[in-house]
């Protein structure tokens, strides 16, 4: 079995338009056994499912990113409910809150969008893929209220917040940030997080790890993230791969026999 399970990527992004087919077809030869392609709105969810239908190593999460919250509606929620019934849809995501930019959707709009999708995930019995940027307090408040299964991806919070999320039953997704020169919080989280709560991710085409900064990210680049986490924890990299792969299969309901 190939070792790398990329729990969060965006291969429907325009950054892959020139070579998407070649790259996704090559994933098994690059030691990638599975990818969760996370949508950012309804059209992205449809594209993600189309990729999942075509490539056996790809599954889809369907949802509205907080930056798309201004386009969310009751009709969009019905659309997500329909798409989530697809057998290759394994989560509601990417959903959450992003308070980083002043010109983003209003916070009330983001909160309504996030809460509606948390309720949908609970209704459908699906895990959630959560985006949290500069919104830790509100994200925690809503996760405590709805208590979903899921992962907080590209985790940027403190080790203390990570422990609280673990107490809620959530997983933590770590990616290229743990390799960055001045990384502090991700390194401490990688050091202290129980290994049975960790997922590896790229957020491709973004968050490319060192030493490949400046390139478009892709799933096999997780090898650098995994190596750094293994170094931080003082364990073999094979253990990082095996445990994170097992965790991802558990969260997304994918059997090991389905992996490339």
Number of helices: 9
Mean pLDDT level: 97
**Secondary-structure element series:** EHEHEHEHEHEHEHEHH
Query: Mind telling me the C-alpha Rg?
Result: 17 Å
Poorly predicted sequence stretches spanning 5 or more consecutive residues: none
Quick tags:
alpha/beta; 260 residues; globular; 8 strands; eight-stranded parallel β-sheet; 17% strand; 9 helices
Please describe what this structure looks like.
With 260 residues, the chain is an alpha/beta fold. The protein is 40% helix and 17% strand. The protein contains 9 helices and 8 strands. It has an 8-stranded parallel beta sheet with strand order 1-2-3-4-5-6-7-8. Helix 2 runs parallel beside helix 3. The longest helix is centred in the middle third of the chain and has 18 residues, at 107-124. The model has no long low-confidence stretch (mean pLDDT 97).
In short:
The protein has 260 residues and is of the alpha/beta class. The chain has helices at residues 20-26, 42-54, 74-84, 107-124, 136-146, 159-167, 185-192, 222-233, 237-252; strands spanning 4-9, 32-38, 58-62, 89-98, 128-133, 150-152, 171-174, 198-200.
Describe how the helices and strands are arranged.
Blueprint: E1 4-9, H1 20-26, E2 32-38, H2 42-54, E3 58-62, H3 74-84, E4 89-98, H4 107-124, E5 128-133, H5 136-146, E6 150-152, H6 159-167, E7 171-174, H7 185-192, E8 198-200, H8 222-233, H9 237-252
Parallel strand pairs: 1-2, 2-3, 3-4, 4-5, 5-6, 6-7, 7-8
